[in-house]
Amino acid sequence: MARKYTARVRTQLRQAQRVERNNKLSAAEGLYREILQENPEVAEAWVGLGNVTKDSAEKEMAYRKCLEIDPDNNVARRALGMEPVATKAEPPPKAEPASEPATVDTKTSKAAVTPNKVKESRTTSAGAAAVAATQSTAPTSDKQPPAVQTKQPEAAETTQKTTRPEKFEVVSPNQATADVATVDADTVDEILFCKNHADRETTLRCYRCNEPICMSCAKRTSVGYLCPQCVYEAEEKFFSATKLDYIIGGAIALVLSGIAAWFASILGFWVIFVAAAVGTLIGTATFYAVGRRRGRYLPQTVAAMVVIGVAPAILGSLVFSLGSFSAVWLIVYVVLATSSAYYRMRY
């Protein structure tokens, strides 16, 4: 039984089913659960959850929930070992009721039927009148009542109108027998505009918030496209550092960098071989000092403190004439150590 859902639910179902077909069961399970959390009456989502979940008890529960909503769902019935419901075949094409008045009762009249057969028509009122006028002027038998012929097009038109309740019919006014063009109102595409760029048309939606986004904003993931706002919210779950962690991490990086800078000024050329290791050591010590918590801007903070810690040594080598060549090696050291500490904190 076909059910009508909102555009958001239809989009979510298509995404979940596409992920399921790609054999990404964990991601598909998450999408089905998200649909059911908002719309527990979606039978297809219960079937999908039963297909992808690994818990046998939850499988059975999901299929039974589906049957409570849609008792004729054969996927759920087969999964529970029940007999599938026979699919209701489309009824064979029957003669339109409009053709019934054309038959003449042999008990009341033995005259031959007029050679002008009644044709099934999808015409407007103007076309119906034209057909009626043509048949009324055709030669007929003396025993055949003219009322039967003149009322046939009206019966055909009435029947035709009652058999198409959910379609819009568009008929050419110049052709009485023109084909009917049907337009399904549910299939009309909606014009969407990116939520971040109002002047850009798009057909893409964020699979999490279902908002329209353009390709410039879309971030591709394993289960679909995300908008920048949803990416930011998802990343926030991994960043648990507090303001105190920023203070502690910055202070430790600053002290360790200042100590390492003093040794770097002594090593001179050999600093090239140890600078990266020293930067990694500073990053590791800071990472454990903040309880291995991660922050969005904590790597930048540590890198900045490493540069500030080396700055006095560079200025001292220039001001107190310790040799400008020594300042060059300190600059080499700060570049290597800063990049190493940054990437250690980030990854």
Task: Outline the structure in words.
- The protein is mainly α and 347 residues long.
- The chain folds into four domains: 7-79, Serine Threonine Protein Phosphatase 5, Tetratricopeptide repeat; 123-137 and 145-170, no CATH class; 192-236, no CATH class; 243-346, no CATH class.
- Helix content is 54%, strand content 5%.
- The protein contains twelve helices and six strands.
- It has helices spanning 7-21, 25-38, 43-52, 56-69, 74-79, 125-137, 146-162, 228-236, 243-267, 271-289, 298-319, 324-346; strands at 168-170, 181-183, 192-193, 201-202, 219-221, 224-226.
- It has a two-stranded antiparallel ribbon. Strands 3-4 form a two-stranded antiparallel ribbon.
- Helix 1 runs antiparallel to helix 2 (25-38) and helix 11 (298-319) runs antiparallel to helix 12.
- The protein is elongated and about 95 Å long.
